[in-house]
Amino acid sequence: MQEVILDNYFKGLEPILGLYDRWHKLHSSRFGISDKQSIYLAQMCAQLVDSTKQGLTIKPSVRHNDNELFGKLPVPYWMDKDRLKMKPDSGDNFGVTNIMDLLCITIEKETNEVNSKEFSVAKMSQDLVDTHINEFWTNEFIRAQHMKEGSAYKEDLNLIANSMSELVQLYNKKCANIYQDNQDRKEIELSSSKSVLTTNSSRLNDEFKGVDYEFLNKFLNSPPIENYKSSIFKFLKDRTSTTFENSLDPLAMFELQLKAASLYLSSVEKKLDGQVCWVIAFRTLCNIKSQMVDGDQSLVIGGPRAIIDEVWQSLRIDKKWLKRKKM
């Protein structure tokens, strides 16, 4: 019975307080808050806040007169969303007339641009290798040419490159073996029940997760610190802080970025499922990308200066950057 009453008598009706509040916004936005009618509507809103508790009601004649006076007020642009929620005959948009309208248009324009599929913080290129990651890596070789111990630092960079290249090969080989073993099991168990196949799928996922964890540790701890030649990594003693990519040890973080960039360049020519860099160095690559974008002279709007661990998911700077076509 209650639902019938609500549907037949109250459905589509706007609360009295909401109606007067809307009239107050419309009238004051056009004539100012000091206008007598604006003051009257503000006082009515104040009275209606506690009208139910006090047992007060609006006389039908007052409601009728107010509706005749304020019901056809034109709706400014910045309140257009409110107008769309009302009945079609509640008023017409009278266009852009004040600073609120201009502000609303500006915000909508910026929001639509950021939310569009075409939006990209970093300029897109057709190059297979990301220019920012590649620039970060090659800049270190250029820097080595101007250092007193440049040859030793260059040896360290080559050591990192060889170590990461070997890691990519081992990772892809191990994953290929796991996948092949799983295919062999499927051929043997073609007549097995669905539950067995589900178990095999779960086991396969667990095996891949184990490989990811294994190579994450190898990535963090390779190459051996004692194999470095230059004094740059002389004081690199603790790599444990890089597990969660915090900034307690800037030197360890710098080494981590070098390894991530090298890992990316070693695996970028592989198909997407063979690019181990996204599996174990995604956040570090995001940080490199954001730093290089921020360093551009193009004054990119919205380019992040850093991506911290707690909010990296919401600050992924360019989804398109991660969606390379399979070669």
Automatic annotation (TrEMBL):
Signal peptide: none
A Pfam family reported for this protein in Swiss-Prot or TrEMBL: RdRP
EC number: 2.7.7.48
UniProt cross-references to InterPro entries, sorted A to Z: RDRP_core
Residue ranges occupied by any RDRP core domain in the UniProt entry: 16-87
Keyword Transferase tagged: yes
GO molecular function: RNA binding; RNA-directed RNA polymerase activity
Catalytic activity reported: RNA(n) + a ribonucleoside 5'-triphosphate = RNA(n+1) + diphosphate
Protein keywords: Nucleotidyltransferase, RNA-binding, RNA-directed RNA polymerase, Transferase
Record's keyword annotation contains Transcription regulation: no
Family: Belongs to the RdRP family.
Protein name: RNA-dependent RNA polymerase
Organism: Funneliformis mosseae (Endomycorrhizal fungus)
Taxonomy of the source species: Eukaryota, Fungi, Fungi incertae sedis, Mucoromycota, Glomeromycotina
